[in-house]
Inverse folding.
């Protein structure tokens, strides 16, 4: 058995059966092994940022890691911004990076680089395979590092000759770690805070956004008046009118400060202390009031769901029967030119139950998400690390992870252009994704940021750097060029007809929403 | 004056008047300063890999650095693979990366990352601005590091608040370093080798590929029989039938070994010892014979051109009048289905004199370049670091650097998809680029590599990972979607008509060559 086959066997034995890849010469034996080791689905991506984003989306939905296969330092480099997002989400990923054959390294060939240096930007778990005999063991250690709580990107650097040489046995199956319940006195202390009568809010993150956790949250909210916010880096938010509504912390610091204003206590459940996206002149970086005490109910490595249930029982909220009021679907918009409000209403009305929404709407998000909160239950995947170009790749991974669910990629035009190659993989794998491009032909968010940062009036040169309209990107043409059928909608009626048709069918379809 | 304005003034005073950028919130003051400080041309790119590749192409043609402006760690990450190529070419680039405002860093916001760690993968010259007072000085130090011989990517990390606060004076103008002539005894020693009667070859790289250097090389070749090869990492190769033909070291190791077989001496002029791209089973990594002695005439930091002229005079080749025989243009191909040979003949016949060729043809290169060697004089820009996705961005930079020259981007289909966003900048800036996409719908080079690495027969799963034909990419549609007019050529006649029309006009135009 070659090293590559041993590696593949170890992955498959550990339930890692999907690999998003963009291989090169040094990974040819891994590619070849796909035909000799059953059980691994190789999914080709035209750009490495699609691989890393897809692996992120896959694990966020599937709850187990995918692998990625990347070519040397530059291939890894191209994946790093979406790995940055995955790092913030604490997504488990097994990242395999090919290296030159061990004897070739000393010659400083064109593609030689310090692969570990690239890896260190997003991971502390980096293994360079030391020889063909230890490749199976190294693979198991990498998998163990990836799934160690709370999850991370684990990197395995594989010299080409260790892939092609005869190798030792496959590595062991790694037991899945089970998160522990936080200490009883920690839960008790939080219960006291909730019962104190002071204004308290809880931030939910990590895995603590599942139906059980949200049900406990709802009962705690009814019993004690505590409010619930979502962590920015939460890998997945469950939303919709049949789901307990967790508040989002607004993007702009004034709004975030207003949302948290007056709180005496903030409780973290698998979450981080809230922080503004950016610092601005004369604006605090943290929206948490200075007098607010921050406590932790459960860390990202602990079982926040069980902790919430224990908390619920401690404060006597376990028996509360108060049913969740199911809000009405938003009304449909009037005919006319397309607006964000209209898109939100239409999507909320016609999205299938249990959809997955990959949200990279940026400046278009708020008016749309407002209505989605009244739509059917669905999962939202947000840009955990703020690095744009995530939305389409994450949609690829989510669709691979859940072929029976509709994925909606709601995507700003500027952001779409960072990783548009994802469309090709959607077409190739016939992924069940409806893509809506919000085509305002601007880096619109920067219009706002320009003013906010005090950079002043937007002059003509500056305006030129925010303008995507010269020439106008034609997303219908771009999408068709990668094999995804596409249409353009400039009115409410057009968008409604196109969106209904898109979600009714299986497979990818893109709608350019003209704004 | 704000820090951003001080930074811009320092750049412009140092002759750095072009910035390829993809800014975000932390760079808004730099963008704003474009309207307050005259002399800087900001060129917007839809993806950071286009910025870095364009800065590389610009400096390779212009002989002075451009700047890039990138947004935080993830923005820098997206630029790194083309910076890898620039690093191998020793291209001077002033890379400005925005950082969170200094007070915001400790909060671990979503976009917080270790920017210096990203920078270290391609550069040893990294400066983080320490305060608004020192921003001008830091800019000058960064410029000095970039242009220090032999040239490198110098990184300047600028916290947002140091951009927006009132700053000190602009930094000084940095004197341009002048490369020194190598020591006389070093040149003398090489002269003795050339006169020894043994088989000798010279590898030319760095700046030693200009008309003066090539003229000296020609005379040395006539006088002593010495052969000349081009360094793989040479930033620019001058080629064509009116130019002394420097041999290329073949891509595959057996061919490279055959080319260098029998040499007793190899002399490096601003060049690296040749090495194979990849290591393979049972194949030496170095094509240099074991008994061949390697000497250096000039390092990358020395004046190789002057050294070649001194060498020419020492061996008595200065007075040789032997004129360069101007080869005939290749004959035009017969009508019929399009082939690589036909493309090479047509391009060689109709490319304007003094064109710039950005070569990312990969598996299609050899049959085309064979004919270009008989075409009019032109400069070739090759993938110095082997990281694909360079060709179109480098063409952007070259066209900005030399608006009076025709740029030909000869581009493999697989490689094109790594940085296709470059087309939009070509359309926006009306750059004088003719793009030919070699559409074979395969990672064709990997068909060959799969066999070479001993990975065996290509099974159906492996084949799937090398196949770009399902669905077929439609480059006409993709190009039009980004505003670049495009046509498709499946026959010799179609390609000839389309290529002649494209080079006759100014502005970008793409031809999908169906292979």
């Amino acid at each position: 058995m070659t090293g590559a086959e041993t590696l593949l066997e170890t992955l498959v034995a550990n339930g890692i059966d999907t690999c998003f890849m963009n291989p090169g010469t040094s990974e040819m034996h891994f590619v070849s092994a796909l035909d000799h080791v059953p059980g691994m689905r190789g999914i080709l991506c035209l750009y490495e940022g699609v691989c890393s984003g897809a692996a992120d989306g896959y694990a966020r939905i599937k709850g187990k890691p995918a692998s990625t296969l990347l070519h040397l330092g530059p291939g890894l480099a191209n994946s790093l911004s979406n790995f940055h997002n995955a790092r913030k989400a604490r997504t488990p990923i097994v990242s395999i990076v090919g290296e030159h054959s061990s004897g070739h390294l000393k010659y400083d060939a064109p593609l030689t680089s310090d692969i570990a240096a690239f890896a260190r930007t997003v991971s502390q778990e980096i293994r360079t395979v030391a020889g063909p005999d230890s490749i199976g063991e190294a693979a198991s250690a990498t998998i163990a590092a990836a799934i160690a709580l709370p999850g991370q990107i684990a990197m395995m650097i594989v010299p080409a000759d260790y892939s092609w040489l005869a190798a030792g046995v496959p590595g062991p199956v790694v037991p899945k770690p089970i998160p522990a319940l936080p200490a009883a006195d920690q839960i008790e202390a939080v219960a006291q805070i909730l019962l104190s009568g002071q204004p308290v809010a809880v931030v939910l993150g990590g895995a603590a956004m599942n139906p059980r956790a949200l049900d406990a949250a709802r009962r705690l909210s009814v019993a004690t008046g505590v409010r619930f916010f979502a962590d920015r880096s939460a890998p997945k938010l469950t939303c919709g009118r049949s789901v307990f509504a967790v508040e989002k912390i607004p993007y702009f610091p004034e709004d975030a400060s207003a949302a948290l204003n007056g709180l005496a206590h903030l409780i973290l459940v698998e979450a981080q202390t809230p922080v503004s996206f950016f610092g601005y002149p004369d604006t605090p970086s943290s929206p948490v009031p200075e007098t607010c005490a921050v406590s932790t109910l459960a860390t990202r490595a602990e079982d926040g769901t069980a902790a919430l249930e224990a908390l619920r029982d401690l404060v006597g909220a376990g028996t509360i029967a108060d049913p969740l009021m199911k809000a009405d679907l938003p009304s449909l918009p009037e005919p006319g030119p397309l607006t964000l409000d209209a898109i939100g209403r239409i999507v909320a009305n016609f999205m299938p139950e249990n959809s997955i929404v990959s949200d990279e709407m940026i400046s278009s998000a708020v008016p749309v998400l407002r209505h989605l909160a009244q739509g059917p239950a669905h999962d939202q995947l947000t840009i955990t690390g703020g690095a744009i170009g995530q939305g389409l790749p994450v949609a690829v991974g989510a669709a691979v992870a859940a072929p029976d669910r509709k994925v909606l990629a709601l995507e700003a035009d500027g952001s779409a252009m960072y990783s548009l190659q994802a469309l090709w993989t959607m077409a190739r794998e016939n992924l069940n994704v409806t893509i809506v491009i919000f085509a305002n032909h601007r880096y619109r968010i920067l219009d706002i940021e320009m003013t906010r940062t005090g950079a002043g009036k937007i002059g003509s040169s500056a305006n030129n750097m925010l303008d995507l309209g010269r020439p106008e990107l034609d997303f219908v043409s771009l999408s068709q060029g990668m094999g995804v059928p596409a249409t353009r909608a400039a009115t409410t009626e057009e968008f409604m007809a196109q969106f209904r048709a898109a979600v009714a069918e299986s497979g990818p379809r893109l709608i350019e929403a003209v704004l």
